[in-house]
Structure prediction request, 479 residues.
Amino acid sequence: MKKIYIWFILLMPIIIFADWPDEPVIIDVTASSNNGHYNSGGRRIVRINQTTVALGVDGNSDHIYRSTDNGSSWTKIDDEYGYSGCLVSGKDNYIYHFSGYGGNVRVVKFLYDAETIPSPINIASYGGTTHGAYRQINATVNAAGDLFVFYHDDNGGSYDTIYMIKSTDGGNNWSSPIIVRAGNTDHSWGFIHSDVTPSGNIVIVYSEWESKSIQFAVSDNAGDTWTHTQIDTNDAYNPAVLPEGENNLYVFAQSPAENGLVFKKSTDSGNTWPSNWTSIQANHANGYADPSPALDDNGNIYVAFRGTDSYTVYSDDLREYIAMSTDGGTNWTFPYNNLPGGRVGTRSIMRYQTWHNYGGPLEWTWLEDVSEEYPTLFKINTDITIKNIGSTSNNNQQKSITFSIYPNPTNGIVNINFYKVQNFEKVEISDITGKTIIIKRIIQQNETIDLSDFENGIYIISIQTDNEIFTRKIIKKQE
Prediction:
């Protein structure tokens, strides 16, 4: 196989690494004031073929907006209203908008570049909610493109039950509701967040209304049955789950007891969890955080949340933050905060789902409390590529990534994890002049490259398969 490297393309990004520009973009400057609790579905931004689609708020309703210039400008493309909206990207360039309206869970299915958006279709009904509309609807997708939608419903009573409906034909037909966790007079469940692991298990986290205990559940049969584990006894809520590889699972939450953003990590697919939370930032008396995590293709973790630069008892001091870990949660830094802006509203949303996210840059939105207008704000970092293990676009502008490289930056040791090895042939490491310094055959799922004997600087990793080459930039920064 003949290989051709065009090195000037690789050298261009070296000037900037992990650029975190200060000023966010307002998605709709005409939006009116809103109740942020109605606009918190859990996933609210997707991207396909360099086109970003996001939910913005106007009053108590969600609307769909589209940008083809990395968020610099936005166009509203729907007029359907609805609340607690959730956006999921699926197979074959389709996007799904789930929302609540008039006692129904609704779906709109459309292509990312569709000129017109079809009308919503009712796929389930509910009686009400004790928890409220805050993250009432959440959805995810698996490798086959099957869709799973979760919602909590009090059935006209005083406690919420968690239900799931699913579609195995791209959203054309839907199952009857499946009870995931039944509520009763002692327990009311809500605040659901879901994802699907690389091995195909559906995982969710949710919390209890009164005690605010956090629960984890997993299904290995497409949601027909569930195994539940309580991972916290009280005083933590608004959880979000992040799968990493086959065994690692992270749960992020907000904790008044810990004064802010916390997390737990399971290394055995959720079978066991640490007893105590690990604090990431502890600066707010009420513990507000509302976390939303994502994973990049180097294995780094990013969490969007609302926090402060120093301890406070005032909610008006809350601002938009990013927490970042390059070592599996052992250490955390805060590469971005929007301190000059107004108070951050109820939800930060990173663009991320394990399957069919179509790769591309790190993007996120949040609600900003400015003069009671609460505009939806958008940010992007084009130097960071989110992990993509299960999607390709029809025109092949984005490739399916089935490996991760970490840590980046590195002190010398670089780990490369392949989710499958049969199509990979070898790894080459080159310096910025194009000189090859290391060549290694790929023979196992986890390979290690040692750059300890080389100078600090930027190196290019080229991973060759039987028909294409993937390139990544890595920084060696040894103390």
The chain has a mean pLDDT of 84.
